[in-house]
Amino acid sequence: MVGDDVTVRVLNEDDPEACLTAQLIEEVFTSESKPLRTHASDVRLKELQRQMNLLYSSLSEYGGNRHDPVAKRTVKLLLRSEAPFAGFARCYARKHLNAYPELATLLASV
């Protein structure tokens, strides 16, 4: 943090999603208008929480019945790059491959 500005360092410059995420975080936290910055940050945080809760419940449903095509399709949709906050969802899925090993195949196909 430099003064009131937030600087986000990307660990992998070759990952376009990581670069975009870093850019979005910097834009939210360095916005000129403090009320606008606070509101935008709150909105994004709530949407991230909503998406991650949806992922957690979908994975729980999928874990309970791995042959359920609807549960599998829901998880696959949440991991697609077009899904909101998909980078966070994919990171969570990669870190939990031991609980859901078949997600490796889903992650490779999205």
Name some characteristics of this structure.
mainly alpha; 5 helices
Question: How would you describe this structure to a colleague?
Answer:
This protein has 110 residues and is mainly alpha-helical. It has a domain of 61 residues. Helix 2 runs antiparallel to helix 3. The chain starts with 15 loop residues before the first helix and ends with a helix. The model has no long low-confidence stretch (mean pLDDT 84).
Please trace the helix and strand order, writing H or E for each element.
HHHHH
Strand content: under 5%
Globular, elongated, flat, extended or rod-shaped: what is the shape? elongated
Structural class: mainly alpha
Question: Taking Cα atoms only, what radius of gyration do you get, to the nearest Å?
Answer: 16 Å
Mean of residue pLDDT values: 84
- What is the number of strand segments? 0
Helical stretch tally? 5
Q: Show unreliable segments.
A: none
Distance from N terminus to C terminus (CA atoms, Å) equals 35 Å
Helix content: 55-70%
The description of the largest β-sheet is: none
